Amino acid sequence: MADGSLSNLIDIRVSPSLRHDLRTPLNHIIGYSEMLAEEASNSGREDLLPDLQRINQAAREMVERVDGMFAPASGTHLREPGKTGFQSAPSLGALDHKIPPSLALPPQTDGVEARPGKILVVDDNESNRDMLSQRLQRRGYATALAENGRVALEKLAGEPFDLVLLDLMMPEMDGHETLARIKADGQLRNIPVIMISAQTELESVVRCIEMGAEDYLPKPFNPVLLWARVGSSLEKKRLREQDQEHREQTLRSEAALERLGALAQMVAGVAHEINTPLGIASTAISIIEGRLASPKIKALFEASDETREFLEDIVDSSALLKSNVLRAHKLVDTFKKISVGQITENKEKANLPNLVADAVDLFRINARQAKLSITIDVSGMRGSQDWIGYPGYLIQVFMNFLQNVERYAYPDGKGGKVEITVGDRGQDGDVQFVIVVRDYGKGISAENLPKVFDPFFTTGRGRGGTGLGLSIVKNIVNSALKGDISVTSEPSQGTIFTLAFPKIIPN
Fold it and tell me: Which residues 6+ apart lie within 8 Å of 11 measured at CB?
């Protein structure tokens, strides 16, 4: 009788655990022969490859014979196409990847690039754990091992993992229960899980996927399929985390803008209240000036040089008081304009150079204390200086720029230059204002430069930095002003922020 017909005559139903035990040592032979083949290829011992290939192929043929001779005892089985009645279930490996013997041992440089990640290997068989761990480590992955589901859950609770390779058939706590507990835990459910088993029941595969498993791998492994599914699971996890981080950043930015809106509303209310006593003070000063200009009052001080000096001091003090009350009025009006602009978000027509000057005026006291010399150059303005946009948002952007210069470019009150240039570019319907804010301070390192607009990134948390300022600026420029913002910098050479936005903000 030919050996090839043996599987057609023997159809023995065995328990899944016995069938698993029969396949396990054959899987070891396949796995270790593949790793030895990789090692031989990398070390220049290609002469060993043909024998290792024969060992690998023989073990694979034995796996197929086991699958053909010993059918699973129960469950939903995979049928071979075109056959009816009870048939032995072929391995999932055979269905997923029929590959010629010459490709059964792909070299290390098979084009599958390992992504950084820490993987937990869960299997009750020590040789299985060791073999899979070695294969993963050869590809640059960090690994940890667990001999059953209980130990796996303890490790998952104690340290972060990017992926779990989980065997189905284990004592104490099998793969199904372990998977169920992982997916029921709010801290663990987002970790991708790939189920691994020699079982071939379709029911088990479907059940695992329905429970939340990322994928399923049969034993023995096809190395190409192994790396593809591991890499795919890690990449999907990375994309999910990236998407979640983006959503959280958006929520944080929206919350920050809401807080700023509430603050702006409060400032508007305070500004309104301050205007009342300032108006009374302005009226009183006008009365004093009128009285001091009266000839009768002047005659009272003509008696001596000393009394004439008294009158001069009173007139000078009155003029100084009047100028500062008017300045306070202007500052309060500017605060109110900013606040109303942020609350209503109504577009207004404004002279851009004047708006920039208003922002610098608001910062004048801080600039004096920080010894900052701020200049504004509008010589690059060729067309109209009128801007239709949101003045409150633009002044907020400038206040953030100037506060950053004070805090990071020239810390500790050492002072320095700040140059602001205002110009325009483009023609016809694509005309933009371009504003450049430049300092000559500490600068930003090449490592930190790409992160300056990231939420909560700051190098000056000890100096009051929250890491939200430039993130909010970028959000305002992109969303409200419909513009772009960029930054260039070199350590010890200073930093340049360039802001460009339309002369008319579109609806």
Answer: 69, 71, 86, 88
Residue located via tokens 């399923």: 216
pLDDT at 336: 62
- For tokens 């851009």, the residue is 352
DSSP class of 260: H
CATH fold of the domain at 3-221: Rossmann fold (3.40.50)
Cβ–Cβ under 8 Å, residues 32 and 90: no
Q: Beta strand 432-439 with 494-502: parallel, antiparallel or unpaired? A: antiparallel
Global model pTM greater than 0.70: no
User: Under CATH, what is the fold of the domain 345-507?
Assistant: Heat Shock Protein 90 (3.30.565)
| DSSP class of 370 | T
Q: Which long-range contacts (CB under 8 A, 24 or more apart) does 183-190 make?
A: 183/211, 183/212, 187/157, 188/156, 188/157, 190/237, 190/240, 190/241
Contact call for residues 391 and 344 (beta carbons, < 8 A): no
CB 261 within 8 A of CB 342: yes
Average pLDDT over residues 110-115: 46
Give residue for tokens 């350590």.
Answer: 491
